[in-house]
Amino acid sequence: MLKFYQKAFTIIEIMVVLAVAAILLAVALPNFLKSSKISTKTICINNLKHIDAAVDQWATDYNIPPGTLPADSQEDAVYGYVKGGKPKCPSGGEYTIHAVGSKPQASCGREESEGHKLPE
Predict the structure, then answer these.
(1) Of 11, 17, 22, 93, which sees the most CB atoms within 10 A?
(2) Selection from 112, 72, 116, 111 nearest residue 90 by Cα
(3) How far apart (Å, rounded) are the C-alpha atoms in residues 31 and 61?
(4) Where does residue 51 rank: exposed (0-12), middle (13-18), buried (19+ CB within 10 A)?
């Protein structure tokens, strides 16, 4: 008499695999979200540094005295010094330019508690 064996996973084996996957997901997901937030903040600060350098270069080229706030019509000229034009904040904030020679010279529309500002 021939015996046929079905090859399949038992319910216990499937439950163990799902439990291990759930534990790995519970550990990995918060770390992934944290690293994503940190990289967004780093990109934003890097953009602010580029804008800050662009304002300094623009002020030097046009002999703009310290304390002068670039007019709205001059912002395009300032962003002309940034490769690729006006950068976009990865977290949805809006960049604003401050007066020449002030610190910080650029800021993001996000709250400073999130760290989206130039380090002093």
Answers:
(1) 93
(2) 116
(3) 45
(4) buried
pTM: 0.70
Phi, psi values for residue 107, rounded to 5° = -145, 160
Q: Which long-range contacts (CB under 8 A, 24 or more apart) does 101-109 make?
A: 101/59, 101/66, 101/67, 102/66, 102/67, 104/48, 104/52, 105/51, 105/52, 105/55, 105/56, 106/48, 106/51, 106/52, 106/55, 107/48, 108/44, 108/47, 108/48
- Terminal Cα-to-Cα distance of the chain (whole angstroms): 84
Averaged pLDDT in 10-residue chunks for the chain of 120 residues: 78 96 94 88 87 90 90 90 89 83 67 65
Predicted confidence at residue 11, as pLDDT, reads 94
The residue with tokens 């019509």 is 73
